[in-house]
Amino acid sequence: MEPQQRSPLLEVKGNIELKRPLAKAASRLPLSGRRLKRGPDQMEEALEPEKKRTRGLGTRVTTTHPRAAALNSAPQTQGQTAVPRAPRKSAPRYSMAVAPVLKTQKPGPVVPAQKPGTTAAPPMVGGKKPKRPAWDLKGQLCDLNAELKCYRERKQVLDQENQQLQDQLREAKQQASVLGAERRTLEEELTRVRAQAEQGQRELGNLSARVLELEERLGTQEGLVQELQQEQLRLQEERRGLAAQLGEQERRLQTSEASLSDSQAEVASLRQAAAAREAVLAEREDRLHGLEMERRRLHNQLQELKGNIRVFCRVRPVLPGESTPSPGFLQFPSGPCGPSDPPTRLSLSRSDERRGTLSGAPAAPTRHDFSFDRVFPPGSGQDEVFEEISMLVQSALDGYPVCIFAYGQTGSGKTFTMEGGPGGDPRLEGLIPRALRHLFSVAQELRGQGWTYSFVASYVEIYNETVRDLLATGARKGQGGECEIRRAGPGSEELTVTNARYVPVSCEREVEALLHLARQNRAVARTAQNERSSRSHSVFQLQISGEHAGRGLQCAAPLSLVDLAGSERLDPGLALGPGERERLRETQAINSSLSTLGLVIMALSNKESHVPYRNSKLTYLLQNSLGGSAKMLMFVNISPLEENVSESLNSLRFASKVRSLAAPSPSGFLLTVGVCTLVLQASGTCIPKGCTFARQLTIDFWGCLN
């Protein structure tokens, strides 16, 4: 008589019920391997609590549980060293239920083998393992290793039992899921059969009622048959008439089919013509794309032939309330092709009352001639100025970096050239709003060729070598120390200003709002040259990104429009009060950045391996807009007043040196000396006694030359 086989599901449930009371017991594990790596003194302190916990483990407790018997039968070895610790595995949820069994099974006495130089463990007294002396660390370590091995063997046995229980539980779950699926299938089939039976009963009742109704109608229909026979005779006569009409319609149908065939042939020819036109259109689109790329290449070549470094000169008109200059003070000789050619030269006459002839008559005025790429007399309007630089703005849209500077003394019209005049007069708009209007217009035209452009604007100022965000609002206004120039990412050549606002723009109204906000935040101060003088460099940057999704083409370039800070000479005999010291520090910072700009332009024109971009925050920020294939244009703005002739001459000389850098000089060292000396002269910086900053600045300049 074979014993009845027990269901795996019942067996698993019994095992789970057997383990349920043991779930709250805490596990008791030996010392970890990290605590065995300590020194002798630390080992004694760490082992003392363990020895207290293992004093009562000398006796064994026999249990009737089969797993406890398996644990008691685990072999124990003596005198072995600690084995490497196995990698920890995540235990199942019910692994903690075995901990009480481990607590009730106390290991037997472990007597480690005596090693040379080790004191043998004292004999056991009363079934308990005696405590080793504190100096016998090796004996204690051997005892702990033996206990650790015993616990590991017990753990392996419990893991095996745990795996068996998991397998049984898994099989029981599978059987339960299969039986549940079969039960659901049978229930669904039973429901469907019942529904079909009910539907059949309803249909049977409906058919019975239908039969009765049809029997009643049959009698009625028999009477109608006779009437229909008579009607049939009449209809036969009509059919013969309709047959004649049908013949006529068939003849007309044949005629229509012939016309339809001709129309289908015409449609096929029209489709072929449309396909040919589509092919021609695709060919023309390819040709148009090729012409656009060729236009960009030729446009770039034309700009390079004109010079990647160009200098324009603009003379502002005389303002109301200013003295009119004497005739011949400023002259604009005609171009090479006559009066119709735009002027490129400027002559400035300077008379020195301190000089005289032997006869006592005043000396003749000294004439200074300058030549630039373009000269704008006082009568030139903003539209004329922008028309000359619109080709450079187009280069930025084509993917070439462009940088435009406005340089000159204080009150010479730099800000008017870049931003325009007050009042919102369209004729007085500066280069920034006109350039963005041009970019938006051309980008809209190129949209028809598959190009899409996005524009992101930023506006910062550099005041005393500190970068400040001109678009900051609220509590962030004036917090220039938080803005730093950093790389956009590891390995990226793009520079960005931390904590500065980068605003996407798509229309002229957004640009006007940004310019108004920046005009309010810019640092200005009253000087002798201008009641409202800019004492910082303002940098408006527009990041242009274009993409042609159909051809997988992309282009990106920055357009930088820079309004450089103005400067004027300081009186050497002026008493340096708190305000004058601040103006002196501002002037020194401005002139230092301008001198670095001259050195950078010189290094780029001479194609030197090292370009000192990092010597100034201005040149470091504009690094990607100056080197490589970038296009640079400098506006030198001068005043038409005779009282500013000294500052005007310094500005014109500096601009002439920059223009001469466009064609590399055979004597780069002498050119470097000229630029540095000119910057020092143009700055008008006087070095009073005790001013170590200005002297150190001069030493740094000469250090660059050496």
Automatic annotation (TrEMBL):
CDD domains: KISc_C_terminal (cd01366). Residues 28-91, 106-132, 323-365 are annotated as: Disordered. GO terms for molecular function: ATP binding; microtubule binding; microtubule motor activity. This is Kinesin-like protein. It is found in: Cytoplasm, Cytoskeleton, Microtubule organizing center, Centrosome; Cytoplasm, Cytoskeleton, Spindle; Early endosome; Nucleus. The keyword Nucleotide-binding applies. Keywords: ATP-binding, Cell cycle, Cell division, Coiled coil, Cytoplasm, Cytoskeleton, Endosome, Microtubule, Mitosis, Motor protein, Nucleotide-binding, Nucleus, Phosphoprotein. SUPFAM superfamilies: P-loop containing nucleoside triphosphate hydrolases (SSF52540), Tropomyosin (SSF57997). One of its GO terms (biological process) is cell division. It holds the Pfam family Kinesin. Belongs to the TRAFAC class myosin-kinesin ATPase superfamily. Kinesin family. KIN-14 subfamily. Residues 148-308 form a coiled coil. GO terms for cellular component: centrosome; early endosome; microtubule; nucleus; spindle. Binds NUBP1 and NUBP2. Interacts with PPP1R42.
